[in-house]
Amino acid sequence: MLTSTLLILSGSLLTLASPNRLADGQTITISLHKRQSSSPVTVDGVAQIGKLSLMLRKAAKKYETGAANFHQNTGESLPGWSSDAAEKRQRKRATGSESLTDEDSEEEWAGKISIGTPAQSFLIDFDTGSSDLWVPAKGVSSTISSAHNIYTPASSTTSVKTSSSFSIEYGDGSTASGPIYKETVTVAGLSATSQYFAAVTSESSSFASDPIDGILNLYSEGKVSSNVFSFKLATSGSELYLGGADTSKYTGSITYTPVTSQGMVEGTDYVGSTAVSTTNNFIVDTGTTLIIATPTAATAFYAKISGASKYEDTGYYQVPCTTLDSLSVSFSFSGSTTKFTVPSSYLNLGLVETGSSYCISAIAYEDIGVNAWILGDVFLRGVYSVFSLANNEVGFATLA
User: Catalytic amino acids?
Assistant: First the structure.
């Protein structure tokens, strides 16, 4: 099914509660802003390797969990995944001394929603790497409630508590749990009735310092003209567009590529005009900052770049800064020869150390348990991205 396909591809869950649509052309625009980290990964021009390493470990745990859930739910395995290998990776990481406690190493795309009748407002992380909608609820600890908007079921006339419960652990070790409700959820004037979500009554204390109230999946209840959603992710003017593609945000045509049965897209990575590999799997994720290659793919990729070498055992490569700042990196996708180039300014994460002529590249490597690249914000900020349930495909276009 396409719903489960896009769940793996982009982490999004679209609930199609009704086949009906509003009038043709009905679309919804949701303004997004980048919630800036209070703990930047670059300080005085120098890359903060500890924080960057946490990003990779969080991504690995997120996708290992996702791959295990995919296997449990479908009986199939994503490319490169096996339960034995997953256990070995977990044991290996368990021997490390670094604790995953930094909640601010990854930035978030945030927007506003409301839940209930009358409306209760929340600031939400629109993360396509998460398949759930949850917000903190009455009964959560005072540490959390004093820092966030809280959902109060008794204050809503449309609140319906179900017999089910919700529990999740994220890639950084943080947790959230609570009962599941059916409610009216509104985003930019679009309301979904009987939308399932979790009213979290227990969550890690680390969420207290995060201005985001909760996590939102992308959904549609037949209220828009087509089963398509699109993103522009940029320094300014970022938006999530439900019901199609916003033609004012891109130029030329949209290049579409099919989604595979395992929820990925396929394609080629390039250094300059040289195709490195034509058989890549890609996962598209707005909830990941970096581009993350498999270790094998990264070795082949950086072999094409003069002066590049692994930076210790961090999951990152160091590249001469002058080379990195002028580097041409691009990707094409199955069904088209069109290349989408990553702006070179997005590739440089900062100096290895003060006074060094080497910089850390934003194309990292990590064994995430699946034989696939992750195309995060470093790639997505340079393109307009379109996710189509209607045709089981993903599209990219040049930003206007």
Answer: 127, 285
